From TrEMBL:
Pfam families: SBP_bac_3
Signal peptide residue numbers: 1-26
Domain of life: Bacteria
Keyword Signal among record annotations: yes
Source organism (scientific name): Actinoallomurus iriomotensis
Protein name (record): ABC transporter substrate-binding protein
Length: 279
């Protein structure tokens, strides 16, 4: 109402002014991702489509997994009637967000300082851990101490790739578009070990009957978050509110029990937060 002055008599005018103020406060900025999503009615979600049990295509080509169920629930809670899933890979997630190819990445991303410089992240929605997998029955590798000098398979653009390059001496790092390809190569003896999500390795060993097995301890455990473009505070707040509500009402626990072999991800997130606070 540019150029219009509001007088302040009691009664109707004051009430109308209050309504205008409240409406303005509730309105999402037009440039914010949340406004764009609600206008289009579609939340565009990037994921690998090859990261079981987080997200993957089943034998009929249907997209399934923890990330998929979580994405649909987040969309519902931020008032986006539809979800459009876009298959890509870890190496292109950040560039795609910045180029506006999708609204959000929900695909088991780890928060790093380098990534934070380029995109924004939600609060954690899961925990993961890096495990060492070898060919079943391999007598040469019993854990991380046996990895120096070995050919190590990793997914490009992941924290596992960074770990192999910086923490394993003389590692011969072989990169793959996704962990499924890496673990398939491992089962055929084309690499000595693969650094991969504990959930992925266990899932593929069981469901695809790959000749692989975990050895030694979990290398490190870390939270997973969703990423989206910077400068969208309303979208960030809406996504965090949705995740918090899913934790509070038991939805996240139900999804994780169904998709992650009975694990209660909400309880694990709460325990990790308590450990960080007391530690």
């Amino acid at each position: 109402m540019r150029g219009t002055r509001l007088s302040r008599p009691p009664g109707v005018c004051a009430s109308a002014a209050m309504i205008l103020v409240l409406t303005a406060c509730a309105r999402t900025p037009a440039g914010d991702t949340l406004d764009q999503v609600r206008r289009s009615g579609v939340l565009r979600v990037a994921l690998t489509e090859a990261n079981p049990p987080w997200n993957f295509l089943d034998r009929e080509g249907r997209l399934k997994g923890y990330d998929v169920d979580v994405a649909r629930e987040v969309a519902r809670r931020i008032n986006a009637p539809r979800v459009r899933f876009i298959g890509t890979d870890f190496a292109t997630f950040i560039g795609g967000i910045r180029a506006g190819k999708y609204d959000i990445v929900i695909s088991g991303q780890t928060v790093t300082a380098e990534r934070r410089e380029q995109v924004a992240f939600s609060r954690p929605y899961a925990l993961n851990g890096v495990a060492v997998f070898v060919h079943a029955g391999d007598p040469a590798i019993h854990g991380p101490a046996d990895l120096p000098g070995k050919k190590i398979g990793v997914s490009e653009g992941t924290v596992q790739a960074d770990y192999a390059r910086t923490r394993i001496r003389r590692a011969k790092v072989k990169t793959y578009r996704n962990a499924v390809l890496a673990l398939n190569d491992l089962s055929w003896g084309r690499c000595d070990a693969v650094l991969v999500s504990r959930f992925q390795g266990d899932y593929l060993a069981e469901h695809r009957r790959l000749a692989i097995a975990p050895v030694g301890r979990i290398l490190h455990e870390y939270p997973l978050s969703m990423s989206f473009r910077k400068g969208a505070p309303a979208f960030e707040a809406a996504v965090d509110t949705a995740i918090n509500a899913m934790i509070g009402d038991g939805t996240l626990s139900a999804i994780s029990r169904r998709r992650l072999n009975g694990r209660d991800m909400a309880a694990e997130l709460d325990a990790a937060r308590s450990d960080a606070t007391t530690g």
